[in-house]
Amino acid sequence: MTLDPLILVAAGVCLLAGVGLYGLLASRNLIKIIVAMQILTKAAVLALVAAGAASGKINLSQSLAITVIVVDTVVAAVGLALGVQVRKRFGSLDAANLASLRR
Amino acid sequence: MLFGLVIAGIILCAVLSITANRLLSSAIWLAGVSALSAILFYMLGAREVAVIELSIGAGLVTVLFVFAISIAGDEAMNAKPLVPRILGVGLVLCLVILLGWMVVPGLVTSDPTTELSSTDILWDVRGMDLIVQVSLIFAGVLSVLGLLSDKILPARAAEKGGRS
């Protein structure tokens, strides 16, 4: 029995989104959080392309995926710059240290 | 078979990227996820996205990560997560089951219909989105420049001078 490749891709999308969400929940390092966000976005792009391949509208899904990749890169760049500034100001990349109101 | 291998590679790289202790190895495994995703996009017929993913996802984003890590330092952090581990795993399992329930039945293959080329869709149908994207890139570059600059604003400098 051979599995339909698109079903395999769908299962991969679900697992990849799970890994990304776990990283987002479990990490305290700001740069690690951005890595987890990147993995989540990869799952979304993969789902878009798989949906396009399934429905026969691959070109439309490609144009949408390009938009997602561009926005994702901008988000990563701004997030990393914020992380660098947090490191300079607080001396640590730990997200828990950012709750300065608790002190 | 090949699909399964590539997808397994993507998941493995993603897991290693999340569990890696050092930030630099985390960034390199993320580049592996991007490169393998590009192969998968090519296999699914999305050639333009494959090229863009390979150049931006595996190239530019990795360079950005290495740059940020070289400034911020590659400190290993073994602190306990803020969310309890059991709750985290439970939430993730719920997400995977829900996503599987929603995504898998939706991927019913239909006959390919005639559609515009991706260039026509990007430039003609989605022209407005493209303008928004260009302005977003511009705003992103400006904000990164503003965040990375070390200059102290005149008002902040005066405040510091007054304190000391």
Instruction: Give the SSE string of chain A.
Output: HHH
| CATH architecture identity of the largest domain in chain B | Up-down Bundle
* Low-pLDDT regions of chain B: none
Q: Main beta sheet of chain A, described?
A: none
Number of DSSP E strands of chain A: 0
Number of helices of chain A: 3
Taken together, the total number of domains of chain B comes to 2
How is the CATH topology of the largest domain in chain B named?
A: Four Helix Bundle (Hemerythrin (Met), subunit A)
Specify Rg of chain B, calculated over alpha carbons. Answer: 22 Å
Instruction: Quickly count the domains of chain A.
Output: 1
State the share of residues found in helices of chain B, binned by percent: over 70%
Shape of chain B: extended
Q: Strand share of the residues of chain B?
A: under 5%
Question: How do you describe this structure in short?
Answer:
Chain A is mainly alpha-helical. Chain A has helices spanning 5-26, 30-55, 58-90. Chain A has one domain: Helix Hairpins.
Question: Helices, strands, pairings?
Answer:
The complex is a heterodimer of chains A (103) and B (164).
Chain A: H1 5-26, H2 30-55, H3 58-90
Helix pairs in contact in A: 1-2, 2-3
Chain B: H1 2-19, H2 23-44, H3 47-72, H4 85-103, H5 118-125, H6 127-148, H7 154-163
Helix pairs in contact in B: 1-2, 2-3
Features:
A: mainly alpha, Helix Hairpins, B: 164 residues, mainly alpha, Four Helix Bundle (Hemerythrin (Met), subunit A), 2 domains, 7 helices
Q: What do you see in this structure?
A:
Chain A has helices at 5-26, 30-55, 58-90. Helices cover 79% and strands 0% of the residues of chain A. The mean pLDDT of chain A is 87. With 103 residues, chain A is mainly alpha-helical. Chain B is mainly alpha-helical and 164 residues long. Chain B folds into two domains: 1-77, NADH-ubiquinone/plastoquinone oxidoreductase chain 6, subunit NuoJ (Four Helix Bundle (Hemerythrin (Met), subunit A)), CATH 1.20.120; 118-164. Chain B has seven helices and no strands. The longest helix of chain B has 26 residues, at 47-72. The radius of gyration of chain B is 22 Å and the shape is extended. The termini of chain B are far apart. Chains A and B meet through helix 1, helix 2 and helix 3 of A and helix 1, helix 2, helix 3, helix 4 and helix 5 of B.
